[in-house]
Amino acid sequence: MAIRPVLRIPDRVLKRIATPMGGVSDDDLVADLIDTMRASPGCVGLAAPQIGVSRRAFALDVTGHPKTKRCHGLLVVFDPVLTESSGREVGREGCMSVPDLTANVARAKRVVVGGRSPGGEELTIETNAFEARALQHEIDHLDGFLILDRVASLATDVFRRKVYQDPRT
């Protein structure tokens, strides 16, 4: 439907626990999440609070990302719940709501996430590697957490995002 502006820190919506979708479906929200995610270079996921909607919903698609080992394609998940996790790995993450920084964040290597599709079907997503990391990142947004809340040390685990400078200019 529309490409929406992405909220950035310190917007207070980003720090709230999002309200469950319950049995409600919202086609406009789904379309806006997908359109905004796809219009944003390098973006693999977007949670509803990032576009100013404090509801438990996100879109995610890691298709073609070089760190992807397992991929379920485009996912739109309402009311997700992390039901299982195992392993632990620190990896670098970026976030559209923290646009100038990246951070080293510890996440589970393998996860199982339950939820439902916008059409009401129950979902169970079992995955690993980068897709698992991305799912955990989006669920964090629904719980009011950003990557800066997950670092072990602000001094050693947060970095300024590198901006490509064309050497010909």
Q: Can you walk me through this structure?
A:
The chain has 169 residues and is of the alpha+beta class. It has one domain: Alpha-Beta Complex (Peptide Deformylase), CATH 3.90.45. Helices cover 15% and strands 31% of the residues. The chain contains 2 helices and 8 strands, in the order H-E-E-E-E-E-E-E-H-E. The radius of gyration is 16 Å and the shape is globular. The N and C termini lie far apart (37 Å).
Unreliable runs = none
What is the topology, as strand order, of the major beta sheet?
1-2-3-6-7
Give me the oligomer status: single chain
Look up the CATH topology.
Peptide Deformylase
Helical percent range?
Answer: 10-25%
Q: How is the main sheet built?
A: 5 strands, antiparallel
Tell me the fraction of residues in β-strands, as a range: 25-35%
Order of helices and strands: HEEEEEEEHE
Number of strands: 8
- Radius of gyration, in Å, reads 16 Å
Q: If helices are DSSP runs of H or I spanning 4 or more residues, what is the number of helices?
A: 2
The CATH superfamily name is Peptide deformylase
Number of domains: 1
